[in-house]
Design goal:
Helix content is about 30%, strand content about 25%. The protein has 11 helices and 18 strands. The strands form 5 sheets. A 7-stranded mixed sheet has the order 10-18-15-11-14-13-12. Strands 5, 6, 9, 16 and 17 form a 5-stranded mixed sheet that branches. The protein has a two-stranded antiparallel ribbon with strand order 1-2. Helix 5 packs across helix 7.
């Protein structure tokens, strides 16, 4: 391990001859499917930046591991050996030299810390706007939130100049400012409430687009061999899955009177309004999106197997649900959930088996128990985007309709959030009505990653 002009450079060795998982990782790295590094460290000394982020002066390096999606886009594997030797004793690291290098680095860091302390004292004096108030680095996050709240109420043109410096400009050409963590956490909380898919799927935050994940396309084969006969050589093969990130836009209007009312909880009101709009929109796209300017929905995935149901008002029978349940592989069935609309839930609640026993099993404590009901031992989750058991006019569902999905959403569906939400204040377009319009933008992507983790109930002829 050494420092270079480009950053920290490390070399590692995979025990491919001793550990099977190491051989698999080596194959992934050679094929280019996995090229990222995760660097774990504990911060010993750091300071916050006025515009967000922090400057780290001293850390303890804990571990470095190979990952598919690195937190920092520049943490990458640059080279990999074609052949790994069983013994590399001649290239054993010089621990004495490493210790000397670390001692030198520690001395440099101590010198930097002395200079940093002096600069902090100077910066503290410069941050005084003349009223005697001092903005320390410990309350930088609170200052950022307060500045953003004033931006929402007053507009950047009426804010004190020292507060505008705490706003983080959006990197997109559309303008606006990135919401601080306090606002973002509240919006995300509302997203989970209104997005039925987000509460089930695996959600990951990313910093780059598109998102590339490894996908195994071939596995190691095992064969029987006679004593003394050579065994055939096999190697795993991998491909990449690409997930596109799409942009969502929403707006909400707030009256000038409410903005001028200091007791009005502006943060909660806007977060709830935007969270509801974003949540309902993304959930509809994750279920039935066409992939044009929005994510491709799960019901449009032709690779997911299905159990056919008759085109009639009584197409759902206990036997059909049992067939659907056992068609899903055991590995996914043990974590799978039933997803359907509220109308479909009401219909299935009345189904009984040959012993006049209800298939539906209420949760512990009844309907108010706080836990989902069960069907054949697996939870039932309401998904409003799916159709009822019949059309609004009482006619049967059309051929090709998918009213029920059974599967493991954590394993089979991925959601990727592009970090950050930006808001632009528009005091002009609705000024005649005494309103200020707030335009919000966020970027998100999602799609099926493992079709075999799901089963559809599909209306057939």
């Amino acid at each position: 391990m050494r420092e270079t002009a480009q950053g920290l450079e490390v070399k590692g060795r995979l025990l491919v001859n001793d550990v099977q998982r190491a051989a698999e990782i080596h194959a992934l790295v050679k094929s280019g499917a996995v090229q990222g590094l995760s660097i774990g460290f504990s911060v010993q000394k750091a300071t916050s930046r006025p515009r967000g982020g922090r400057t780290i002066y001293k850390t303890d390096l804990q571990e470095i591991s190979i990952v598919s999606v690195p937190a920092h886009p520049n943490a990458q594997i640059l080279t990999v050996k074609e052949n790994i030797l069983e013994h590399e004793d001649n290239n054993a690291p010089d621990y004495a030299a490493l210790e000397t290098k670390f001692n030198e680095l520690e001395t440099k860091f101590n010198s930097v810390n002395i200079l940093t302390n002096r600069l902090d004292k100077i910066e503290t004096r410069l941050n005084r706007p003349g009223t005697g108030n001092v903005e320390t680095k410990d309350n930088a996050g609170e200052s950022e939130t307060k500045a953003f709240d004033n931006f929402m109420r007053l507009g950047v043109e009426r804010m004190p100049q020292i507060e505008t410096k705490a706003l983080i400009s959006s990197t997109n050409s559309a303008g606006g400012f990135t919401v601080p963590p306090a606002y973002l956490a509240e919006i995300t909380k509302q997203l989970v409430l209104y997005s039925s898919v987000r509460s089930l799927a695996r959600v990951t935050s990313v910093g780059t687009t598109p998102v590339l994940l490894p996908k195994r396309t071939g596995t190691t084969t095992v064969s029987w061999v006679d004593e003394g006969s050579p065994s055939p050589s096999t190697q795993q093969t991998y491909d990449r899955q690409s997930f596109d990130i799409f942009e969502m836009g929403a707006h909400c209007d707030v009256s000038n009177r409410l903005l001028e009312d200091s007791m009005f909880n502006l943060e909660s009101e806007i977060a709830m309004d935007l969270g509801q709009q974003f949540g309902l929109s993304e959930s509809a796209a994750f279920i039935g999106g066409n992939g044009i300017g929005k994510p491709a929905g799960i019901i449009g995935n032709a690779s997911i197997p299905f159990t056919p149901g008759l085109n009639s008002l009584t197409f759902i029978t206990p036997g059909l649900l049992i067939e659907m349940f056992y068609s899903l592989p055991t590995f996914y069935a043990k974590n799978a959930v039933w997803t359907m609309s509220r109308g479909m839930m009401g219909y299935i609640r009345g189904l009984v088996n040959g012993l006049e026993q209800f298939l539906w099993q209420d949760s512990t404590g009844g309907l108010a128990g706080g836990q989902p009901a069960m069907l054949l031992g697996r939870p039932i989750i309401e998904m409003p985007e799916l159709p009822h058991h019949q059309n609004g006019d009482g006619s049967p569902l059309a051929i090709g309709t998918i009213p029920i999905i059974f599967g493991d959403w954590q394993a089979g569906f991925r959601i990727f959030d592009r970090v950050g939400v930006s808001i632009m204040r528009d005091p002009f377009s609705q000024a005649t009505d005494g309103l200020v319009r707030f335009h919000a933008r966020r970027r998100v992507g999602g799609a099926v990653s493992l079709p075999e983790a799901f089963r559809f109930l599909k209306i057939a002829a």
